[in-house]
Amino acid sequence: xxxxxxxxxxxxxxxxxxxxxxxxxxxxxxxxxxxxxxxxxxxxxxxxxxxxxxxxxxxxxxxxxxxxxxxxxxxxxxxxxxxxxxxxxxxxxxxxxxxxxxxxxxxxxxx
Length: 111
What we know:
It is a single chain. The chain is mainly α. Helix content is 59%, strand content 4%. A two-stranded antiparallel sheet has the order 1-2.
């Protein structure tokens, strides 16, 4: 899949992965991609964002404010093979205000 990407694009994805790893996040989200694009200084995106006043430090600060930095994540191999565990519908419902409803039971998972 990455063979169609330019060298700069591939580097931005690698840098996004490094940003996610730096925060101990277990996924690469759009926030990490944005940070990766800013770290790839040669790209048009980074130059455009920086010209608009958006800096890597500001983006990192917002990522940590909004998503937090995970201290350490230990994943049990037995649990990870089974996928995410489902939370009780009452716990999900308390978070959403839908305790006991089918929407809470159908869509709420804790990983």
